[in-house]
Design a protein that fits this description.
about 500 residues, alpha/beta, N-utilizing Substance Protein B Homolog, Chain A, Rossmann fold, four-stranded antiparallel beta sheet, globular, RsmB/NOL1/NOP2-like_CS, NusB-like_sf
Length: about 500
């Protein structure tokens, strides 16, 4: 009888008809075939393209996303959606991969990379965005069908349906219920070596152990867009009129939520720049630490991509100082030149050189009154803004970078005038890149002296009734006499910038 029924259900081309087979009621899709999406929408396509570039080409999302948003002609709402989908997915790859591994019948490494990236995008929509489940499923499957092919779309649909069976909290309680490094790594999407580095830094800076979770959580919060109107050049008012809010921490600064930064007044012209407020404060602290004398000579040793250089140059312009902006990379130097184009050309010059080689030139020995060394580092302080770096960096990178940092510090001291000011800055809280680097320099160089860096950083912040908006206790921890300063994403809503002011 079964064979007869089967024969009855074949069409004239011999294909089996399965509707209601074996007495089962047919299960209909949520959408009729004519209504199912068969092409990807621009916002999700943009996010997928960025993830592909990050996965396949080691690209940095913050550098290519604005260009892709404009190329795909996203409006303000879609640009905001694409930005959150991109950064949110990249930020939580470790968490989503742990969840997807429970829902896929093979090791994730055996999936094609485009399929895995599409699954991550779908998981983020299902678990961490206010996207209805049916919409997250339909649009992700449509994206796969459009960009990868019809074959993988069935797999993606089946896997994401399993993902949607639990909320994010339910998945985390299932996969990471404890306080072990492995559990916290899944819960907060941080590799274990980074977890340990943050915990050690908190202890070194005198912060209580219970703050550990707060810092990890802060690294996973989408940061506000930070802006600065270059002093004497930019105008903050049109930025505020556009919908930004004035910063309560830094002068000439604003914060903005959502949208394409390129549409903000002054950004395309370069008079207003996108720059983390922590970065703004460290550059201002060097410039404001003491009165600027006319004809001072300043150096930005690692100036690329140009944010701090533009701020320093605009401040130098107001006081008659000059800035040499140097970087080892010719490509990054071109970005610096683009950033500096709005500053009077008489104020700044450019060079492309290794900072170590720069110090070997006799003409540069004890030449500069102020030097900014924003040293190459692991970038563990900017995990909110550069989420892919947490999955790229390794402990092996740290060994190479700390050696380079020490060499650059020695080179900077060689080029600093007696009594000049050197700002050592890293976008990292790792003690090997921060306090240990400073203490090692002081041991190597008997003439070097650490100044009151915390007070200098406080002086760079907004002043309210004679008091700094930056509380000293929050940047020095329990030891308020500490002479270095560390910003934190959970306390200050900035990158975790480290600042030390030195002289000799």
């Amino acid at each position: 009888m079964a064979d007869e029924t089967s024969q009855d259900r074949r069409n004239t081309k011999g294909r089996q008809r399965n509707r209601g087979q074996a007495g089962r009621q047919r299960k209909y899709s949520a959408a009729a075939p004519a209504q199912r999406k068969r092409s990807s929408d621009p916002a999700r396509l943009t996010a997928f393209q960025i993830l592909q570039a990050v996965t396949h080409e080691d690209a940095y999302a913050n550098l290519i996303l604005p260009t892709r948003i404009r190329r795909n002609k996203l409006d303000r709402q879609d640009a905001a959606f694409a930005t959150e989908l991109t950064y949110g997915t990249l930020r939580s790859i470790g968490t989503y991969d742990a969840i997807l591994a429970q829902c896929v019948d093979r090791p994730l490494k055996k999936l094609d990379k485009p399929v895995l990236d599409a699954l991550r995008i779908g998981a983020h929509q299902l678990l961490n965005m206010r996207v209805p489940p049916h919409a997250a499923l339909d649009t992700t499957v449509a994206l796969v069908r459009d960009q990868i092919g019809a074959g993988p779309s069935g797999l993606v649909n089946a896997v994401l349906r399993k993902v949607s069976d639990r909320s994010l909290d339910e998945w985390l309680d299932h996969l990471a219920p404890g306080e072990s490094d492995t559990d916290l790594s899944i819960r907060y999407a941080h590799p274990t070596w980074i977890l340990r580095a943050i915990k050690q830094s908190l202890a070194t800076n005198g912060r209580p152990p219970e703050d550990f979770h707060a810092v990890l959580a802060a690294n996973n919060i989408a940061p506000e867009l930070n802006l600065i109107a270059l002093p004497g050049i930019g105008d903050l008012q049109p930025v505020l009129d556009y919908g930004a809010q004035p910063s309560d921490l830094a002068p000439d600064a604003a914060v903005f939520v959502g949208g394409d930064a390129g549409r903000i007044p002054g950004v395309a012209e370069g008079t207003v720049r996108v720059q983390d407020i922590g970065s703004q404060l460290t550059a201002r602290a060097l410039a404001n630490a003491r009165d600027i004398e006319a004809d001072e000579s300043w150096l930005d040793m690692s100036a690329g991509p140009g944010g701090k250089a533009a701020l320093l140059a605009s401040l130098a312009q107001t006081k008659g100082a000059s800035l040499l902006a140097n970087d080892v990379s010719e490509h990054r130097t071109k970005l610096v030149a683009q950033a500096l184009r709005v500053v009077d050309e008489d104020v700044w010059t450019m060079s492309v050189a290794d900072g170590l080689e720069l110090a070997k030139d006799p003409a540069n020995v004890q030449r500069f009154d102020r030097i900014l060394l924003d040293a190459p580092c692991t970038g563990l302080g900017a995990l909110r803004r550069r989420p892919e770096s947490r999955w790229r960096r390794t402990p092996q990178d740290l060994a190479t970078l700390t050696q380079l940092q020490a060499q650059l510090l020695d080179a900077a001291m060689t080029m600093l005038k007696p009594g000049g000011l050197l700002a050592y800055v890293t976008c990292s809280p790792h003690i090997a890149e921060t306090t240990l680097q400073v203490s090692d320099l002081l041991k190597r160089n008997a003439d070097a002296k650490l100044l009151d860096s915390a007070t200098a950083l406080q002086g760079a912040a907004l002043q309210h009734e004679g008091a700094s908006a930056l509380d000293r206790a929050t940047i020095t921890g329990a030891d308020t006499e500490s002479n270095t300063a560390q910003l934190w994403p959970d306390l200050h809503k900035t990158d975790a910038m480290f600042f030390a002011l030195l002289t000799h």
